[in-house]
Amino acid sequence: MRRLLAFGRNQPLQITNVDLNAMTEAATKVIRQTLGDAIRVEFLPQPLLWPARADASQAADVLLNLALNARDAMPHGGVMRIATAYRVLDAKAATAAVLPAGDYVSLAVTDAGFGMTAEVLEHALEPFFTTKADEAGAGPGLSTSYGFARQSGGTLTLASVPGAGTTATLLLPRGEKPPPKLTLRTPVVAPGGAGSCWSMTTISCAEPLPG
To answer: What is the DSSP letter of 3?
Structure first.
């Protein structure tokens, strides 16, 4: 029932300004213990990250779900990377993501596992769809995570190559309060034209959203 409510964007949320770097750093300690020694977890935070507008506990649940899916895609171990980034969607990128153009914060989990075929990728975010028996790395938790993201005004995207791994990216609206000492400058279009980040001395451009 919880998965259905989440997918239908009807779960109650306590929206606040969430420091994704702090939340992810704390959650990563639990994730490392949960995943075991066979999985090396790397956290790549973007410095001076704006907060996200989201439910903090639900966002932490999504991160754990994505980490568990990454673990299942790497039964023999490997490296899982968790990265945060500041994103600006132009009109083209926003249309592709079915979101308003504007400022967002992303949380991406990348594994080096089985990857997904195009057919699996097409259905991976649907309720009750799972490939656990086929060991393809998609399964319970993705539809719930997607529902949370959409209800929060963001989205969840998947990019995957069979045999080369998967990246799941949670995109959430930017919060209202900038981090300390953050100075915005001219927006710069990211490679491929799918998005942009702000040109800053301490922050590098994020990759464009998976198309």
So the answer is: H
Instruction: Show contacts of 195-201: CB within 8 Å, 24+ apart.
Output: 195/87, 195/88, 195/89, 195/90, 195/93, 196/87, 196/88, 196/90, 197/85, 197/86, 197/87, 197/88, 198/86, 198/88, 200/48
Of the listed ranges 22-31, 171-180, 191-200, the one predicted with least confidence: 191-200
Question: How far from the centroid of its chain's Cα atoms is residue 76's Cα?
Answer: 24
User: What pLDDT sits at residue 146?
Assistant: 92
User: Contact 99/171 with Cβ under 8 angstroms?
Assistant: yes
Is residue 152 a contact partner of residue 163, using CB atoms and an 8 Å limit? no
The pLDDT of residue 93 is above 70: yes
| Other CB atoms within 10 Å distance of the CB of residue 169 | 24
Environment class of residue 81 by beta-carbon count within 10 Å: exposed (0-12), middle (13-18) or buried (19+)? Answer: middle
The string of pLDDT tens digits covering residues 151-163 is 999 999 999 899 8
Task: Kindly report the pTM of this predicted structure.
Answer: 0.76
> How far apart are the C-alpha atoms of 209 and 41, rounded to whole Å?
22
CA distances from 204 to 23, 59, 167, 190 (A): 21, 24, 19, 10
